[in-house]
Every structure is written in structure tokens, then in C-alpha cells.
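Example record

One chain of 394 residues, shown exactly as stored in the release files.
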Amino acid sequence: MFFSLSINVFLAMKNFFFIFMLFLCTGVFAEIKITPWEFAPDQTLTTRCYFNAYGGTSPYTYILSSDPNSQNTDNYSQMSSTGRFTQVPNGKYILKITDVNGESKTFNISVEVKYGLVAQNDIALAKVPCKGTAGSQDVFIDVSLNDQIVATRVDLGNNRGVYLSVQKEYVGLKIIKESNFGTTTPINGGIKYRLNEDASLSSDYFEYEITYKNKKDTAGVTIYFSKEMPQIEEVHVDGNKAYFSASKGTPGYIFVVKDTSDNETEVSDHITDLTYGNYTVYVVDQNQCQSAEKGFFISKVVYPAMFFTPDGDGINDTWKILNIEEFDRFSIKIITREGKLIKEYKNSYTPWDGTAFGKNMPSGDYWYIMSYPETDQCYTGHFTLIRNSGSVEI
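Predicted C-alpha cells for this chain:
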């Protein structure tokens, strides 16, 4: 009979029956974080072992029992049809593998489970107002790596074992160095941080200690403050009017419009009667936090009348163009529906009285073409002349 006790165990038995055994032991996996804690199934240092037999006649029966000649603290004994054993503590064991024909073999196995403790420095991001303190806002710090490290070794007698696994379990937590500008409080296994000073600070720092049984480790957390500033969301220009919207910060916005001379006008959400030129706007929220400026442009806009009635009653007797005086240079052409030019103005405009070539023009629609070289703008449209009599066709 020949067999080798190693990670890959080869057995040669009578009638060339053999069992080939592979094993793999891993630790208990459980996720843990500060805020919130997630618990491992237990706090004992145990591992899981997997054995696979080949050869002979399957299926196999596996029995893992404490070695009666060892000083095991636990009297462990489990039987498995799959070769899998759970919650195996430190100690020496006898593994017995039996096939369906009753052929069996035993192995002496040692299991050693050791643990350490690692705390890792971390960072956190806290949103705070741009001015003042955080007030009633509590920042919960998520420190992701506070690990109980468990190394598992299985030895078949020739010192060729397997080291595996990270086991994360609940550990004790306390603050060992307070933050400079806030208050840190362990709560439900996590850490609650509250800023007590002016939020114009850029960061804060504290240190904590984790413990498990006779192990301990320390780490630090740096908290960076992200200031919630308001921002201009949209500027909508409609002629000589501008409409504003904002987001973020603390609602209760005031918009401030500035012209090129830095004259400021405070408005709620819109402004009217703006003249041609460049403007900027910024928003101030309820906490007096100010956004960045955003620019917008007001074009020169004219408003031609839609109709006029040259009947001498003093009401709408001429065709007027509102805001035409905003332009130093312009050209205005009035044409009939047939496309005939009947009136033209250049750089100067007197409201048209409805006459051309010394005669009254008849009622009807007329078209205009307005161009402004200084702004490269051009407007076209039509209006209506309404009169009762005294006109001629041309």
C-alpha cells in the first residue's frame, strides 16, 4: 500500500483501489462596515474545510473527528457525504474516507486558525452650507475597511498547508482623537460626525480604534467639506426681458442683475425694460451664499405697429416703430403686396402717415424690411393701413 500525505494525496490500496484527496479550507466570510455593521454568524475562530476523494467506487462518506490523543478544546465530529465541513476550530483531527464498498483510509490533519486586526485610513465627504455651521445635519462616516483578518492553515503532516480567507466580524469601536472642529460619536457601530465650526473650513480629521479579543488597531478619517452653493440653472431672454431660475443651495433665491457699469438690480425671478447690451446675473440663496455669475445679451429690438388709421382723429394716425431710436444706423423699406417700393428711410425715421408720391395710399396690408448694420439684424413683416376714403390705387 502506497500513499502520500500532501495537498494532493494519492492512495494505492489492495486490488489497486486508490483514493485521491484534495482539500481546501476557507474562513468564514461576512461583510462589515462602520455604519452599518453587518455581523458574522459567530465570533469563534473557525474555518470550513472541503475534501474531495477520487478512485475506488463512489459515493464516499467523509468523517472528520477530533484526534483523541490531541489537546483539542472542542470535541469535534461530523460526517459528510460531500466532503464539506463547517465551523472547524483549531486542533488536530482524523479524517476517514470510505467508499461504497467499505474500503477506507484515514489521515491525520491539523487545522490552525489565527486572526489579526487591520484598520485602514479613510476619507469621507460631507455636504455643508457655504456659511455658518452644519446645524442639525449629522454626517455618518462610512469607514469601509475594518477587517478581522483570519488565516487558515491545514497541515497533513508534511508542513504543506493552505492559507486562505478574510473573516470580518463585529469589533469594538471608540474615538481616540477627537476632530478639531466637530463632534464624533460612535453610534450603532458607526460614527456620527457633526460640524460645530464655520463651514468655510476645508476639512477635519479624527482617529478611532477598533478591538477584537486581544487585538487592536487604529486609523484616521479625513472629512472633506463639500459646500452646497446655489447655481444659475437657466437664463431665458425674451426681447428686452430676462427670466431666471436657480437650483441647489437653500431656496429663497434673490437674483442680482449687473450691467457693464456694474450697476446692480435685485429681482425675484425676472427683469424687464432692459436696453441693448451685455449683462450678468448671479443668485443669492437664503443663507446668503452666492453663485457664480452667468452672462446674457439683450439685442436691440424694435416693435412695429400692427396697424394704423390715418383719419385725422389723433389716434393711431401714423405707423410707428417702437425703439427705433436705439439704432444709429438703419434702413426701412415699405412695399406694397405686389412688391412695389413706396417708402424708404435711412438712419432717420418719421412715423409714416400713409402717403406716397403725394397721395394717400389705400387700405390694405403693407410689408416692411428693416436692417441694422451695427448689429447685423434684419426684420421683415407686415402691417395694415385702414382708411375709409380719400385713397388712390397706384
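Notes: Residues 1-43, 158-167 have pLDDT under 50 and may be disordered.
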